[in-house]
Write a structure and sequence with these properties.
By secondary structure, this protein is of the alpha+beta class. It has one domain (5-119): 2-Layer Sandwich (GTP Cyclohydrolase I, domain 2), CATH 3.30.1130.10. It has four helices and five strands; from the N terminus they run βαβααβαββ. It has a five-stranded mixed beta sheet. Helix 3 runs antiparallel to helix 4. Residues 8-118 form the Dihydroneopterin aldolase/epimerase domain. It catalyses: 7,8-dihydroneopterin 3'-triphosphate = 7,8-dihydromonapterin 3'-triphosphate; 7,8-dihydroneopterin = 6-hydroxymethyl-7,8-dihydropterin + glycolaldehyde. Catalyzes the conversion of 7,8-dihydroneopterin to 6-hydroxymethyl-7,8-dihydropterin.
Length: 122
């Protein structure tokens, strides 16, 4: 049997957190939009139908929500990096990419976003 590679995409997770370094940003929660892509080998999960062999996206999403909403961040880089770290916790994750957008951060722009990615060494 061939190896089955899966990609989970958590799309447009809308949360509120403290993000930024201006006084108004430090004192008021702002909207952030998170997109995450998690790559993993799904061969065992697809054969066994066992949740323990898969990446549990519901648990992952809850972990992201809890972490983002209960912390403060000065930079998008820090927030994005910490979400990326949560996405790579499962042992069978081979790669992940996270984009965090900050709507209305700039005048005349819909949002500002930052993307970070990582890949496990083979």
């Amino acid at each position: 049997m061939h190896q089955l590679n899966a990609q989970i995409h958590i799309e447009n997770l809308r949360l509120r957190t403290y993000i930024g370094f201006n006084e108004s940003e430090k004192n008021n929660k702002q909207d952030v939009v998170i997109n995450a892509w998690i790559d993993y080998c799904a061969s065992a999960a697809s054969q066994s139908d066992d949740i323990n062999q898969a990446v549990n996206y519901r648990t992952l999403c809850k972990d992201i929500i809890k972490h983002v909403e209960s912390n403060r961040f000065l930079l998008l880089e820090k927030l994005t990096s910490e979400v990326l770290s949560l996405c790579t916790n499962a042992a069978n994750v081979s790669a992940a990419k996270v984009t965090v957008s900050k709507p209305h951060a700039l005048r005349f722009a819909d949002s500002v976003s930052l993307t970070l990615s990582t890949q496990r060494d083979a």
